[in-house]
Amino acid sequence: MPGPNTTIEMKGIASVLSSTRLEVPLHQRVFTWTEEVQELLEDVGEAFNRKREDYFLGSLVIIAAREGGRPNVLDGQQRLAVISLLLAGIADQFHDRGDERRSQEVRSQYLTTFDIREGTERPQLKLNHIDDAYFRSILMRGATEPEHGATDSHRRLWEARQSISNWLSNKLDKISDSINWLAEFTEYLTHSAYVIYFTVPDDANAFLIFETMNDRGLDLSIADLLKNYLLGRAGEDTQTVLGQWTTAIASLGAYGGENLFKVFLRHFWSSKYGLVREKELYRNMKLRIATSANVMDFADELAHNSYFYAAILSPEHEFWSEASLRTRERIRTLSLLGLEQYRPMLLSALAHLQPGELENLLRLVIGWNVRLLIVGGLGGGAMENHYCELGKAIRNGELKSVKEIANRAKSFIPNDTIFRDSFASAYISKAYLARYYLRTLERQASGEPQPELVPNADPAELNLEHVLPERPAEDSWHQFNEDDRRAYTKRLGNMLLLKEKMNSKLRNGPFDDKREVYKSSDLLLTKKVAEFDGWNKATIDERQNYLADLAVKAWSIKP
Questions:
Q1: pTM of the full predicted structure?
Q2: What is the pLDDT of residues 376-423, one digit of tens each?
Q3: Nearest CA to 103 among 112, 231, 393?
Q4: By three-state DSSP, how is residue 98 classified?
Q5: Which residues contact 24 (CB under 8 A, 6 or more apart)?
């Protein structure tokens, strides 16, 4: 439950702006909304048209004002900014219809107040340091488009202003008494388009709110909370810490932006201290980052490790510019497998191992991940916990070489016997994995080096074929009953690779018709299928046992 100093109120969203001078913390994220602006307008407009029924706009989380300051908006700044722009648009519409008194009243009630001492208008809502000046300018009548080269957030603010103007104009074109409609709509935003308004004494209590609510702000607020916490304790190093934070965000920007950044934060922290769940992350960090010196050290590590984390995500990253093609292909293969649990360990390795050690480690990690995928039984959380413990041991200097890491990993990686037995009966439902497994085994059977690399990820060039078809033609495949088909169709022993133009003619036909095409294939494993006289459960088992023997060699875990 929220803490004892937390207050909870129901307020109309426009009344929030009229009653409280709010501020987005100085270094909060910028304005990000695009299509959400139109969605909000349509939703509020429809609710207003339905006999002015109440409309719920979610929650606002506000940190109480510190001495001499404004309350800080921790969650809800995007909605408040859009409603402010909507009220500015309403003021413009009053003006355009000759009602200057109402136009000025909207501005003075909801958008700005006049500071008698300073003789200037003060906004009711201040955005962050990047957006605030431009946001103030477009609240005014006669707002202009941002200059060429302006930030993306300024462009989004301008587009929101234009969308609102167009939406209001389209509405009012259909209204005979436009002045009355504008007045009623303003009242509706003040009293009936409401939010749950949380006021909390500090950011730790704010996080309790996020933990107890299924609010759409959760994904990004952990990062926002941490940033504000760091900057609040950075002292005279605030700009340096902000610069390091910005560097970390920029490092990952091309690979997933803010949502990925949250994942990175957890993986980085887990690589240092062991597995930490998302809901525990912020509090765990606060306990360990208590002083300004801690903040500086953490900010440096954050920027440094975000660079390595980006390298894990892409073989094209500059970190690999001097690495071998084989090393880069191993990074690509790890991405193909679709797991994330290994990343904390690999993050530690990139930060601490010599470049020459990384190529061999990547080969091992591919083998480990394939074995874990095939054998199963080790849930994602347990798997990640083991990898995090390896990462922690690498960072603290306990594990200094690939050989030492591999020896420690033996405690949870399936050995050859377990892997072979599991592979011999593996049921593969994901086509991309089946295609990767078969092409790797093809390379192993052909004696090619490094068979575990991604050999061909293009499904248009090598197509996955089920010998026993997923949808058999009528009057064929009677040797399999319905239960057999479900059990054997997606067994790896029943799958092979073909050129797509061949496969299109044969997909659902009988085995005898397919065998001649298999025989002409230049793929060794496909050609070998043609050596069978028929296709049944026993032949599938026999072939998959042969593939299992190859698999032990293809995904070797010897350092």
A1: 0.69
A2: 866 668 899 999 999 999 999 999 999 999 999 999 999 999 999 999
A3: 112
A4: coil
A5: 72, 73, 77, 125, 126, 127, 128, 132
